[in-house]
Amino acid sequence: MSSEFLFVTVPNTDSADTTLRNLHRASSSSATLFKIDVPVLLVGTLDTLMNLSDDLAKQDMAVESVVKKIERTHQDLSKTEGSIPVNGISREHFTCNFAWDYAKYPHKRPLKELVTLVTTGVASIEEELRNLSTTLADKASSLSEMRRKKAGSMLVSDLSSTLPDSVVSQINLLDSEYLKTVFVAVPKSLKQTFLSSYHTIGSDLVSYGPSGSRDSSKGSPCVPGSAKCVLEDFESSLFTLTILKSQYTSGHYEGTSFKSGSSLDFLDLFSKACRDKRYVMKDYTHSPGAESRSKVILEEGEAKVEHMQASLGRWCKAHYGEAFTSWVHLKVIRVFIESVLRYGLPVNSTTCVYQVKAGKGDVLQAQLVEMFKHLSPEEDDGEKEEGGEEFLPYVCQKFNLD
Predict the structure, then answer these.
(1) Do domains 4-136+305-400 and 164-283 have the same CATH topology?
(2) How many C-beta neighbours within 10 Å does residue 328 have?
């Protein structure tokens, strides 16, 4: 079934039925014709009509954009290419059998108010879609981060929630006044280099010089012979090291003023020295059962995302019809305004919708141009309207559902 439609309004040279028969006879080979009833709307002043005509092109594009966003969102969530029904029927059926919604859009209201009703309603839908999509994106991002920490390499994973208790129980974790056990993740390609040189990491951090001249000799805070491989994955090895936690520098006199001593913490400095060699010192706080709790949190995150996706999918189905209906009404308002500007008052025209047969769009246009060429001023024959669009001797609005 073709998804290309054309709303057309032409003046009645005889009765409306005669006009319809002539339209059908002239174009039956290229499109299927459907009559639609357009109420006589409040015209207002010529200035109002011309201003609305200029604004409606942008507003039409904005409303179409919202309709397409809902379609794409629903397709992304459902993983299908099928269209969403409009009020329980297909988009094509709704368009071909369009009926003005007098309850929602009272035809005795000024045209400008009708357009505002359409656009503000769609803007509200767009805002709600944006908020829901942002919420879903945030939850999905959080879930992705949890999965990365849970399933990723030890170079990026969170040890506090992924290191099994069975492994921790085999490690002698030191955290005394002077010494601390740290975890260092090493890319497998650097494992041998690490084993041969780990005791030199941060070789300028600790002062080993004699009393009174501590800074004369420097070394690493890492205890030689302390490296132990406790776990490996597909791209890294996890080692424990014992390092000196800190070093106290005693106070001293500068002239008659006494400068208090200070303590130099090596943990952050050692971590930076590891990064310089492409090793990663991992934060770790032992908490029995943390792995199980992490699994539960991950499952809860997955459930929240699935629930949000289902809710957004239902929202798309519920609001798509409203947005699509508003879009079609805006198209009808546009052809009504253009027909008044083109044909004048009182309103004596017929509006129909063509469902164009596949690949027959240009043929239909040529047929209609030939049928109504008497409405085209000779001096404008073949010219284009301001803005580069071709002048047509009839009023039309294209409507593509793809």
Answers:
(1) no
(2) 24
Minimal CA–CA distance to 56: which of 9, 126, 111? 111
Residue 160: pLDDT over 90: no
Domain boundaries, the chain: 4-136+305-400, 164-283
The CA R_g of the chain, rounded to the nearest whole Å, is 37
Asked whether 241 and 159 are in contact (CB, 8 A), the reply is no
Q: Enter the pTM of the model.
A: 0.71
Q: How does pLDDT run across 134-157, given as a tens digit for each residue?
A: 999 999 998 887 777 666 677 887
Spatial separation of the C-alpha atoms in residues 9 and 352, rounded to whole Å: 7
- CA angle centred on 319, ends 318 and 325, rounded to 5°: 120
Return the CATH superfamily for domain 4-136+305-400: subunit c (vma5p) of the yeast v-atpase, domain 2 (1.20.1460.10)
Say how many residues make up the chain.
402
Nearest to 313 by CA among 80, 139, 94: 80
Q: Does the pLDDT at position 378 exceed 70?
A: no
| Rounded distance between C-alpha atoms, residue 112 and residue 9, angstroms | 20
Q: What is the CATH number of domain 164-283?
A: 3.30.70.100
